[in-house]
Structure formats: structure tokens, C-alpha cells
């Protein structure tokens, strides 16, 4: 069921690399802020306000209470700037954190590759990492063209690991 990142990427059992990035509100957030407190569903997506990314974000929004119920925070990450994230979050009433990975440094650290497709050219990958309270990666799911499945995969893993 799990699709792991390509060779060189972060995989199940690895310690999730920490990062400190600006949110849609201009505040800094780090992965370590959640360690010992909440699991984190970190999802990398190509671009704000595009059809697939909007469907994915709105599905995360609609399932946000289910994530909170199992003790998890959702963080969306793309290369869009904070102003774009602010507009995207406001337009779709997204209750979770969006962070700006300008330059794609965190994307590269996690091994999230660009997707080569004949129809669309090169797109940043769509990969979700479920990270336990201890900072260990519990699950990796990658699918550029099934954005809603990222949410069902993440909730299933979190419920299975909820103790």
C-alpha cells in the first residue's frame, strides 16, 4: 500500500529532517516544534490554487478534525511564497499550516523529485509523509494524480498507530 520515496529519499523508519520555514502568516515553524506533542502529516504539493492541489488541500481541510482527533497536525509545503499561501488558505478556508519552501531545499532534503510527464512537462512531486510524535517517518505516499488518496492513506496510518 505504501509507496516510498525514490532512492536517496526519506523512507519509513527514517528520522524526518527538521526544517524551519515561514508560514502563510509569516511566522516560522519547525518540525521539532511538534516533536513529543503531535504527529505531523507533511504533504508536499506542486502549486497553490491549481486543480489537483486545491482538491488535495480541500480534502485535508474537510478531514482536518479527523487528523486532530488522532493527535496530528497537517502541514502543506510548496515553493510558493507566503503571500500566495495566505491567499490560497484564505480563499479555501484552510485551517492548517502552509509553509513556503522557496528554493525547494526541504523538498530536496526529503527526496521529493520532480515528476516528468509528457502532457505537463516537469512538475514538483506530490508526496505525503506521516511523521510520528517521536519524529520517525511512519508512512510515505506518492501520487501526483490521486491527490485525495493522500488523506485517506495518512488517516489510515495514524489510526493504526494511535495508542
Summarize the structure.
By secondary structure, this protein is α/β, with parallel strands linked by helices. It has helices at 51-62, 64-69, 82-92, 105-109, 149-161; strands at residues 20-22, 28-30, 39-44, 72-78, 97-100, 114-117, 121-124, 127-131, 137-142. Helix content is 29%, strand content 26%.
Features:
29% helix; globular; disordered N terminus; Glutaredoxin; 163 residues; alpha/beta
Task: Describe the overall structure.
The chain is of the alpha/beta class and about 160 residues long. It has one domain (about 20-160): Glutaredoxin (3-Layer(aba) Sandwich), CATH 3.40.30.10. The chain is about 30% helix and about 25% strand. The protein has helices at about 50-60, 65-70, 80-90, 105-110, 150-160, and strands spanning about 20, 30, 40-45, 70-80, 95-100, 115, 120-125, 125-130, 135-140. Strands 5-4-3-8-9 form a five-stranded mixed beta sheet. A two-stranded antiparallel ribbon has the order 1-2. Strands 6-7 form a two-stranded antiparallel ribbon. It is globular. The two termini are about 20 Å apart. Residues about 1-5 and about 115-120 have low confidence and may be disordered.
Amino acid at each position: 500500500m505504501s509507496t516510498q520515496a525514490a532512492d536517496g529519499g526519506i523512507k519509513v523508519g527514517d528520522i524526518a529532517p527538521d526544517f524551519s520555514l515561514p508560514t502563510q502568516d509569516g511566522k516560522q515553524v519547525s518540525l521539532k516544534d511538534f516533536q513529543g506533542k503531535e504527529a505531523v502529516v507533511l504533504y508536499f504539493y506542486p502549486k497553490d490554487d491549481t486543480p489537483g492541489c486545491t482538491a488535495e488541500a480541500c480534502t485535508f481541510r474537510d478531514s482536518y478534525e479527523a487528523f486532530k482527533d488522532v493527535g496530528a497536525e497537517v502541514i502543506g509545503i510548496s515553493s510558493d511564497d507566503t503571500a500566495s499561501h495566505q491567499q490560497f488558505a484564505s480563499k479555501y478556508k484552510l485551517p492548517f499550516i502552509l509553509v513556503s519552501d522557496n528554493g525547494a531545499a526541504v523538498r530536496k532534503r526529503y527526496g521529493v523529485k520532480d515528476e516528468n510527464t509528457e502532457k505537463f512537462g516537469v512538475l514538483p512531486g506530490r508526496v505525503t509523509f506521516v511523521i510520528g510524535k517521536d519524529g520517525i517517518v511512519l508512512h510515505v505516499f506518492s501520487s501526483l494524480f490521486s491527490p485525495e488518496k493522500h488523506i485517506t492513506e495518512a488517516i489510515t496510518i495514524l489510526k493504526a498507530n494511535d495508542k
